[in-house]
Structure formats: C-alpha cells, structure tokens
Specification:
The chain is of the alpha/beta class. The protein contains twelve helices and eight strands. This is Alpha/beta hydrolase.
C-alpha cells in the first residue's frame, strides 16, 4: 500500500487503481480498505479509485487524541495527493464522515454519494446511543476488545447464529484489533445520533443519498434519516436501492456510482 501524510503527521495507507476522475471510498465501522476491494475493482474501469484505511486501522497510523476533524484532514490529504479534487462515496458511519468532509472541504469534494448513514432520531434513541457509547468506552478502556465488538454487533442487530459463526472465523481477530475505532465512529455519528442538518446544509455539490429497500423492515430509521439528509441539502437526489439491506452488494452499487459520478443525476 502507498501512504500519504495527514496534517498532524499521521501516515494514512491507501490503494490506488484505475484511471479517470478520482473516487475515494470511505468504509464504515470495523472495516478497512479490504472491504471495498470488489467495488474498487468494478469502478476502476472508469475512475481512479482510492480505497484507504481510516486512521487507527490496518496500515494507517493513529494519533491521539482522536478528533473527527483529523479524519477529515486525512481525506483532504488523499484529495490533495490525487490532484486537488475528488468524488466521495461513504457507507454507514463512513457516510457520516463523507458528509462532514464535504461540508468542510468545499470544492475539493465535487460530488458525494452516501449509503445508509446511521443517524436515528427516534424516541429514546438519544439515551440508547449514550448508553451504547458509555459501554463501548468502558470495554475499550479495559482492553476488553472482544466484548466491545460483540456488544456493537448486538447493538446493530446481528443474529445470534451469525455472531457465533463470526467469532469462530479468522475475521474475528481483525475485528477485535479495530475495537478502539468504534469510539471514533460514535464521535462521527454524533453525541445524540441526530442528522446534523445545519452543517450538512452547507454542502453545495451534487449528492446521491441512498438507503436499501430491505433495510426498511429491520432498520426503518435508515429511510427516515436518508429523507432528512436529502431535505437538508439543496443539490441532493434520493434513491432507495431495490433488494438491498445495510450490507449492500457491491456489484449492485458499482453501476449506480458509475452513472452518478459520470454525470447522471
């Protein structure tokens, strides 16, 4: 992997593939550049694709104290390395980060696509989110990484049978190594998990705001949040992706992004 140095001196690792306009892929919780491997491959016929490890993950360094602004600096460093402007695609908490970056970096972000930013303003969710954040903090502070990851997965609704299989897989060790970054994602989504309508309303570039059709049953807040994000940003377009849940198929997402970033609205 190649590396770029962020404003605070942190080395950020990335992979670059393809040719054309630059697209930066921003992963969500407990993920790294590897989770966008297939999507990067599919997009590389049309774009120069940067898939990177967010700070504290994989090949990237980490610098304390953590701040969302530093993750935005990381994206800016990638954009500057790529030539000064880029499209962004973010999924889950990576979608929240992409929104914050676009609101901060101005015309360095020329288009933005997001999938299921996990804001939730439902009744009792502010309190539930605080309890989640406090429990994660306790687990991470006491180096109970496995407990932190398991708690997170149960919070987001993973079935017990899937959790058992995951804990028995080689992937579990890597997920435990990323447990501390769950607190970074909490910070990105925000203290009360509400849509930051005021901040993101500053975004002036075209944005595609997506949710999955199948998410409506188990995570209806994804639809509600997508609608509120779309309403907050003047240049937005909304799309519900048919047949998809939160784990969107990258073979389905690739042509959607290709069309949008190539000029489609």
């Amino acid at each position: 992997m190649q590396k770029v140095t962020s404003k605070d001196g942190t080395a950020i690792a990335f992979k670059k593939s393809g040719n054309g306009p630059v697209v930066i892929l921003i992963c969500g919780a407990l993920a790294s550049h590897k989770d966008h491997g297939k999507l990067a491959e599919l997009l590389s016929d049309h774009f120069t694709v940067f898939s990177y490890d967010r700070r504290g993950r994989g090949g990237s360094e980490d610098t304390k104290p953590y701040a969302v602004a530093r993750e935005i600096d990381d994206i800016e460093a990638l954009i500057d390395h790529a030539g000064g402007s880029a499209f962004l695609y973010g999924i889950s908490s990576g979608a929240c980060l992409a929104l914050e970056a676009a609101a901060t970096l101005g015309d360095k972000v020329t288009k933005l696509a997001i999938y299921e930013a996990p804001y939730d303003e439902g009744v009792g969710e502010k309190e539930r989110w605080k309890a989640y954040a406090d429990t994660l903090q306790e687990y991470v502070a006491s180096s109970r990484n496995g407990d932190a990851v398991e708690y997170h997965l149960k919070f987001v609704g993973i079935p017990d049978v899937a959790l058992v299989a995951l804990k028995a897989s080689p992937q579990w060790a890597e997920m435990k190594s990323l447990a501390h970054t769950l607190l970074y994602d909490v910070a990105i989504v925000g203290d009360d998990r509400s849509v930051p309508a005021g901040r993101i309303g500053k975004i002036k570039v075209p944005i595609l705001v997506m949710d999955g059709e199948k998410s409506l049953e188990k995570m209806p807040f994804m639809r509600t949040s997508a609608e509120k994000i779309g309403s907050a940003i003047p240049q937005s377009k909304r799309r519900t992706v048919e047949g998809q849940d939160h784990q969107v198929d990258e073979k389905v997402m690739a042509p959607i992004l290709t069309d949008f970033f190539s000029g489609g609205r």
